[in-house]
Amino acid sequence: MVATLIATGACSTLQPPDPNGPRSNAPPYPVLLLDEGTRQEEALLAWRQLAQRYGVSNQAEISLNPLTATINALPGNATPIVLPKVGTGSTQTEEENRESLRRFIDEWRSVIGAEPNELSLVERVDESANVKRAHYEQRPFRYALRGGYGDLIIRFNNNRQLLELSSNCIRNTERLQTTLSNLKPNVTAEEAVSHVRGKTFTISTVRGQQSFTLSANEPAEAKQLVIYALPSKVKTNLLELRLAWEIETPNATVKRVYLDAVSDEVIAAT
After folding, report:
1. pTM summary value
2. How far apart, in whole angstroms, are the C-alpha atoms of residue 62 and residue 65?
3. Dihedral sign, CA of 182, 186, 188, 190?
4. Residue 244: CA atoms inside 13 Å, Cβ hemisphere, count?
């Protein structure tokens, strides 16, 4: 028996490794956002509760993002929604505006789809004398989130009336933390650059399918690993998350190329 076990073990060590890596205990990849089934209904219920609190008609419904179940747009011709009042003056200072926004986000997190501590204010501008705009980015993971998701836009006027609220943030990110943290790149930064140089790629863009070529001596640098979100190719109405190298190509037609660090394929370019 001992001889048999030794022989079997020896044969095992001589077997060539699986080029696709271990399968039995590897996490599913790409990481799909779980279709919780009721997330759209839950978001609408949360909106109705908020609408009742703010005196908005029960017939007014918000538009929801089909992939994230977060608010796309406020209902038209509805009762105005006003941000919380901060301070005692007739108009709020910039500091008071930011505190008002913070309180609003905390109260509306159920339709925004992100916890307040995940959101960073990246831009606060005055679009006109009476219209202000705040742009927040969701930063929930170890790596930066890319792919056009994780954005929250709030526009309001000097009277604190809400003019626009749109979010494509990713819900329940705490459930994804462990899985995403355990992803390991199969491609190094140097390999990522070499794999995109001198090749032609076809990718999907807002303009449809487009091809681009990076010359063999194209300046390129893999800056960082990111989590790239994009619609799933295999399941409708679901997002998939991929670990990718963000490669900067400053002299090319596209300025950034995203190479999947696990499957070694170009998944996007901007």
Report:
1. 0.85
2. 10
3. negative
4. 27
